[in-house]
């Protein structure tokens, strides 16, 4: 298979493809089975023990009708003659096997339940850990809704397979084989007649499997889309309500619900046809056995007890075949879910931790940042964002990046923090290519404060403490004081222990930014990147933060992206970026004094005018 072919299915590439070609379909199925195997193998012992228990349970259950046959044909006639021993044995045996079977079922449910839970927990942990490690570029195209549907509904369908489906399959296979053997031993001609009924059943089972596979892939796809829609609506609730998107979202959800209903209808139709055929064959063969058996009993060719046993066994012979459908049902559904989960697990981070990292030299006052011949685009087919970028920022310098929206400023910041690797050229810290720096060291050396300022549920102190997990409470409070956040934090209901609630929803945007500053200050990085970090602050707070910033930035390298010129003016050097290139480079004073009036000088003039 060529590389281009592989691009069609590797990772999550084929996830939304409705009609897969046969080779790709087979590849994905194999990938799902390999994943299933890797989950089951470490727990094979527990699985085999569960299998033993269910075999023993079936063997005991199987004894029931034989004991009834013996009771009718031998026990009762003997008892009529005064010898009750055989009947007592039969009744005792029946009771004993019933109790034994119940105890074995109890043990089986416990063991198989543990097996299923272990598999699911392992899978959930694997998907979660892996999703966390995948690079930002993956999460930008693969929405959080999709990851959530992998972690919830897809894992649930594996749960259904392990909890009910597998039990159904084992019980069905064991009963069918066990009963077939007993029937053939009890009365070969009648036994063969019953077995003949299996031919149409096996044929319709195969038909069911092939048809339902496609249908279940459809239902999994549809449910995933519904979850994505839910998650996105809930995440963007404020925008949804502000822009009155509710009716549109309702229409979208109605469409998705419809898609789900159609996919489910196909699955249910196939299931109904299957169940009907199995029942039909079951009832027909029951009637046939009753007629033939009755004639033979009348003619003296068959004992009544044997015919009764046949009748009892036949019920148990066809009923579990329904379970086969349940198994095929949950198996196809789980394989479709595993296909998607294994796709996520197959994705590789595009930004990888080096195998043999190079240690950064001891930090002095910040670290030098260099871009050498960097060419960057977000995806191989996307537009070039940085055509050819060269820049050296000496250690300790505070650089402000200014430029129009979409010029590439944030992209430069993301490259310094190594959220992406440039396909061409290098970004280096103190001369060490970022690709060679261990992730943990890089995260200590470079800290970014952005406009989003994501806060985790927990206290204000916890959120600041994220900057340096080993920090004491006193250090956390000192960091807040340094950026001027101490006052508002103390005014909160529980001060530093106030719960910020989901995403810091209890704090204002400006307060969240102050917490983020304190967090970055506590982390004490050699390189600090501020991407629109002061944009939510009001003017007095911004002034206060700026004063704090000047001391915070003093002994480190800083990259500031700001639209407000007041923030830019504290920089040692200003770079005006346009179309991914630096078009002006100098100190704020130099650029303002540009003899022929450069872009920054123009920006500065407009700003002064706006203040007037
Ligand atoms: N994740 C992404 N995937 C694809 N393209 C992107 C992505 N992020 C940014 N871009 C594109 O890269 C270009 C530069 O974006 P960037 O965010 O660096 O601009 P910026 O100068 O920071 O703009 P702003 O001042 O509005 O924040 C834009 O054309 C943008 O559309």
From TrEMBL:
<keyword id="KW-0472">Membrane</keyword>
<feature type="transmembrane region" description="Helical">
    <location>
        <begin position="168"/>
        <end position="186"/>
    </location>
</feature>
<dbReference type="InterPro" id="IPR039421">
    <property type="entry name" value="Type_1_exporter"/>
</dbReference>
<feature type="transmembrane region" description="Helical">
    <location>
        <begin position="84"/>
        <end position="108"/>
    </location>
</feature>
<protein>
    <submittedName>
        <fullName>ABC transporter ATP-binding protein</fullName>
    </submittedName>
</protein>
<keyword id="KW-0547">Nucleotide-binding</keyword>
<dbReference type="InterPro" id="IPR003593">
    <property type="entry name" value="AAA+_ATPase"/>
</dbReference>
<dbReference type="InterPro" id="IPR017871">
    <property type="entry name" value="ABC_transporter-like_CS"/>
</dbReference>
<dbReference type="InterPro" id="IPR036640">
    <property type="entry name" value="ABC1_TM_sf"/>
</dbReference>
<dbReference type="InterPro" id="IPR027417">
    <property type="entry name" value="P-loop_NTPase"/>
</dbReference>
<keyword id="KW-0067">ATP-binding</keyword>
<dbReference type="GO" id="GO:0005524">
    <property type="term" value="F:ATP binding"/>
</dbReference>
<feature type="transmembrane region" description="Helical">
    <location>
        <begin position="270"/>
        <end position="291"/>
    </location>
</feature>
<feature type="domain" description="ABC transmembrane type-1">
    <location>
        <begin position="48"/>
        <end position="333"/>
    </location>
</feature>
<dbReference type="Pfam" id="PF00005">
    <property type="entry name" value="ABC_tran"/>
</dbReference>
<dbReference type="InterPro" id="IPR003439">
    <property type="entry name" value="ABC_transporter-like_ATP-bd"/>
</dbReference>
<feature type="transmembrane region" description="Helical">
    <location>
        <begin position="192"/>
        <end position="210"/>
    </location>
</feature>
<keyword id="KW-0812">Transmembrane</keyword>
<keyword id="KW-1133">Transmembrane helix</keyword>
<dbReference type="InterPro" id="IPR011527">
    <property type="entry name" value="ABC1_TM_dom"/>
</dbReference>
<feature type="transmembrane region" description="Helical">
    <location>
        <begin position="48"/>
        <end position="72"/>
    </location>
</feature>
<feature type="domain" description="ABC transporter">
    <location>
        <begin position="369"/>
        <end position="604"/>
    </location>
</feature>
<dbReference type="Pfam" id="PF00664">
    <property type="entry name" value="ABC_membrane"/>
</dbReference>
């Amino acid at each position: 298979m060529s590389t281009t072919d592989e691009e069609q299915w590797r990772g999550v590439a084929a996830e939304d493809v409705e009609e897969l070609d046969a080779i790709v379909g087979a590849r994905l199925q194999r990938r799902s089975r390999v994943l299933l195997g890797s989950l089951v193998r470490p727990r094979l012992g527990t699985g085999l023990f569960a299998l033993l228990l269910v075999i023993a349970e079936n063997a005991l259950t199987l004894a029931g009708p034989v004991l009834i046959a013996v009771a009718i044909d031998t026990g009762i006639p003997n008892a009529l003659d005064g010898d009750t021993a055989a009947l007592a044995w039969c009744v005792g045996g029946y009771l004993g096997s019933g109790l034994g079977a119940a105890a074995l079922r109890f043990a089986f449910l416990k063991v198989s339940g543990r097996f299923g839970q272990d598999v699911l927990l392992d899978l959930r942990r694997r998907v979660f850990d892996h999703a966390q490690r995948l690079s930002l570029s993956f999460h930008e195209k693969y929405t959080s809704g999709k990851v959530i549907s992998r972690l919830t509904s897809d894992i649930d369908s594996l749960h259904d397979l392990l909890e009910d489906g597998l039990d159904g399959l084992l019980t069905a296979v064991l009963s069918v084989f066990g009963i077939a053997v007993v029937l053939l031993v009890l009365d070969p001609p009648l036994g063969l007649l019953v077995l003949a009924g299996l031919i149409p059943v096996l044929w319709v089972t195969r038909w069911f499997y092939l048809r339902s596979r496609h249908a279940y892939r459809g239902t999994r796809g549809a449910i995933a889309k519904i979850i994505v829609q839910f998650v996105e609506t809930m995440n963007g609730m404020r925008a949804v309500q502000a822009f009155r998107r509710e009716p549109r979202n309702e229409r979208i959800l109605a469409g998705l619900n419809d898609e789900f209903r159609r996919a489910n209808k196909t699955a249910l139709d196939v299931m109904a046809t299957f169940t009907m055929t199995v029942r039909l064959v079951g009832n027909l063969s029951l009637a046939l056995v009753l007629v033939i058996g009755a004639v033979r009993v009348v003619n003296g060719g068959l004992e009544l007890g044997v015919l009764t046993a046949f009748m009892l066994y036949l019920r148990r012979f066809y009923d579990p075949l329904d379970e086969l459908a349940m198994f095929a049902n949950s198996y196809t559904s789980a394989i479709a879910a595993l296909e998607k989960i294994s796709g996520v697990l197959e994705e590789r981070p595009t930004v990888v931790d080096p195998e043999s990292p190079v240690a950064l030299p001891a930090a002095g006052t910040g670290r030098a940042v260099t871009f050498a011949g960097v060419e960057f685009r977000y995806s191989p087919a996307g537009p070039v964002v940085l055509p050819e970028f060269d820049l050296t920022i000496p250690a300790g310098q505070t650089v402000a990046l200014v430029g129009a929206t979409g010029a590439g400023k944030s992209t430069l910041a993301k490259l310094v923090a190594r959220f992406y690797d440039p396909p061409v050229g290098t970004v280096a810290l103190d001369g060490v290519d970022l690709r060679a720096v261990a992730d943990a060291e890089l995260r200590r050396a470079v800290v970014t404060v952005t406009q989003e300022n994501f806060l985790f549920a927990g206290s204000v102190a916890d959120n600041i403490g994220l900057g340096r997990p080993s920090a004491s409470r006193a250090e956390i409070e000192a960091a807040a004081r340094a950026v001027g956040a101490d006052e508002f934090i103390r005014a909160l209901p529980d001060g530093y222990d106030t719960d910020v609630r989901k995403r810091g929803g209890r704090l204002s945007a400006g307060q969240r930014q102050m917490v983020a500053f304190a967090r970055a200050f506590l982390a004490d990085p050699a390189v600090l990147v501020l991407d629109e970090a002061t944009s939510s602050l009001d003017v007095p707070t911004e002034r206060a933060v700026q004063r704090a910033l000047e001391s915070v930035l003093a002994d480190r390298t800083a990259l500031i992206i700001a639209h407000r010129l007041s923030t830019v003016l504290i920089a040692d050097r200003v770079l005006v970026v346009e179309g991914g290139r630096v078009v002006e480079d100098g100190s704020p004073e130099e650029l303002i004094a540009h003899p022929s009036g450069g872009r920054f000088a123009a920006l500065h003039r407009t700003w002064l005018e706006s203040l007037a």
